[in-house]
Amino acid sequence: MNPSPIIAVANQKGGVGKTTTAVNLAACLAEKQQRVLLIDLDPQANATSGLGIAKRAGASVYRALLDGSRLAELVIPTAVERLDLIPSEVDLAGAEIDVARAERYLHRFHEAVAPLRAEGRYDFIFVDCPPSLGILTMNALTAANAILIPIQCEYYALEGLSVIRRIIGQLRDSGANPALAIEGIVMTMYDLRTNLSQQVVQEVIQHFGDQVYATMIPRSVRLSEAPSYGQAIIGYDPHGTGAAAYRQLAREFLKRRRALDQPVPALAAGTAGVSAPPAESAAVPPTIPPPVEPAPVGNRNSTTEVAEDAKEGTEAGFVDTDLHGSQMKMA
Ligand SMILES: Nc1ncnc2c1ncn2[C@@H]1O[C@H](COP(=O)(O)OP(=O)(O)O)[C@@H](O)[C@H]1O
Ligand SMILES: [Mg+2]
């Protein structure tokens, strides 16, 4: 079996939609027959409680980060079929200090998760990171194949993005994680009523080009209510716009991933003095692409594209019953 790809959901800003995206993208992928593990690496444990799991001492990765004990024993099932969780707990806050004192402190999570990844039991392992670039986030980024960055559609959205880019560059160049790729950038809390959202999206596209997902997550009260009921959005409000948006994001995520799995021309591996990346990120360019002209935001979720997605989804063996709901109007 192929090793499971690890995707860190990270952005050092708080409240940008990391946890909401980690939980709901993971749940929507599970709904699409993918086997998914979500690891809650945030001491605030929002992903854990958001999936209706009670915090319990000793249940998190904390021990494993320090003594290398097995992560597999920490895995628990959730109410969503095919979605498993390694929960967080308050103790994890101590890891910032304790792990910093340990040897190879940046690699503790990488080493702890290695057997689970190698087993290949999951199609995807997501890591919900805390809102900082502290030891826990850096451990996640050192272990990850790719980083998925949620960005909130608000005025200061771009602030801090240069920091993330620099960190990614440093992790690659230092050899700590030479193959770290950008999985994608997801715009969250998109507000149809404001021009600001559109402006922010265009600006982010100018910087990150097609690394920005065409799917944007609208602001939705239901999305913010779901965690207090301990449910992913597909359980709490399966037919609303929030569920439709995350289902669409899951479709786009899989579509991009499948494109990466296509055979790559021979020159891709081992040319740039970087060690060959693992198979699942082989087609991701090691550099951030140059800025592109902003795409016309209003057209990005056109009917044709949704129809194509649905057709393609059916061909790939999963049927999406939410075609109409997923036609979000972004203009
Ligand atoms: N699309 C959305 N619409 C409305 N509220 C949202 C949306 N995404 C997230 N929220 C809310 O915003 C707050 C921050 O989101 P969260 O996912 O916890 O961010 P982070 O993990 O980056 O700190 C939470 O209260 C969450 O419920
Ligand atoms: Mg969070």
List keywords for this structure.
single chain; about 325 residues; alpha/beta; Rossmann fold; 7-stranded mixed sheet; 7 strands; binds adenosine-5'-diphosphate; binds magnesium ion
What is this entry, summarized?
By secondary structure, the protein is α/β, with parallel strands linked by helices. The protein is 38% helix and 11% strand. The chain has one domain: P-loop containing nucleotide triphosphate hydrolases (Rossmann fold).
Verbal overview:
The chain is α/β, with parallel strands linked by helices. The chain has one domain (6-300): 3-Layer(aba) Sandwich (Rossmann fold), CATH 3.40.50.300. It is 38% helix and 11% strand. The chain has twelve helices and seven strands. The protein has helices at 18-31, 46-50, 62-67, 92-101, 108-119, 135-143, 161-173, 195-208, 221-225, 233-236, 241-261, 303-315, and strands at 6-9, 36-40, 76-77, 83-86, 124-128, 146-152, 181-188. A seven-stranded mixed beta sheet has the order 3-4-2-5-1-6-7, sandwiched between helices. α1 crosses α11, α5 runs parallel beside α6 (135-143) and α11 crosses α12. It is globular, with a radius of gyration of 19 Å. The termini are far apart. Mean pLDDT is 83; it is low at 267-331. Magnesium ion is lined by residues 18-19, 42, 46.
- Ligands: adenosine-5'-diphosphate, magnesium ion
Largest sheet: 7 strands, mixed
Architecture, CATH level 2? 3-Layer(aba) Sandwich
- From the spread of the alpha carbons, the general shape counts as globular
If you consult CATH, what is the topology?
Answer: Rossmann fold
**What's the number of structural domains?**
1
How far apart are the first and last residues' alpha carbons, in Å?
43 Å
CATH-assigned homologous superfamily: P-loop containing nucleotide triphosphate hydrolases
